[in-house]
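Would you mind writing out the residues of a protein together with its fold in token form for me to study?
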Amino acid sequence: MATKNMPVTYAKENIRVNAICPGYINTPLLDVLDEATISLLTQMTPNGRLGEPIEIARCVVFLASDDASFVTGICFIADGGFTCQ
């Protein structure tokens, strides 16, 4: 709700508020999972793979850039289509 409420409050001060909602990303956090679980997560993701950290970083760079100057109040889902199912 903060992502939806704060832009209304701060937009006139030129403050943008957005959230990035990543899917399963190939980071050390997933190292605790066994191969079978990783395989299942990969199969459950429509594009058939885990995300890479650079892909989330690019979302951050975009939202922080002037290219997103009119973007506020969004939850930027970067999950390979996982939540579309």
Q: What stands out?
A: The first helix runs from residue 2 to 10. The domain at 2-84 is CATH 3.40.50.720 (Rossmann fold). The chain has a mean pLDDT of 97. Helices lie at 2-10, 35-44, 53-64.
